[in-house]
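Quick illustration, no need to memorize.
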Amino acid sequence: MFAGHYYQYPVTQAIIWGFPWGLIACLRYFRNDRSETLGERGINQVKVSPAKKTAIRLLAVIGIVNTLFFLTSNIPNQIFGTHAGAVPRDVLERSYLLNGQCGPGTDQACPGPRVPMPVGPDSAHATPDGGFTSPTGLPNQEAGEQ
């Protein structure tokens, strides 16, 4: 929605964000006859003190919630993020939205379909003016340097 503006919103985000919260609600709603969620089942077979059982139950629920978020939010967002379009020009005109990471005023072009994302401080990268910068010690093949 609102493509090309600094306030554009990917509709996929609304869908992706709903899945983990819906599954967490299902985790809380669907309990067994002892009011145990999926992660707490079988805790009565563990021979530890009640305080340790509570800690184990808490860790189990935290683990399931983190797994749900990882599978239904982090992975899809990573996939959509790596296939995203270019940074809108409206964002490039507002340097406070880029926080000095890329674009005008820096030596790195913002990543997009035709501009690869740099992997680290010593990786080759495109510049905002359309040039290319290679790491120290490597020849710049585009400029014909050796």
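Helices lie at 11-29, 50-82, 89-92, 95-98.
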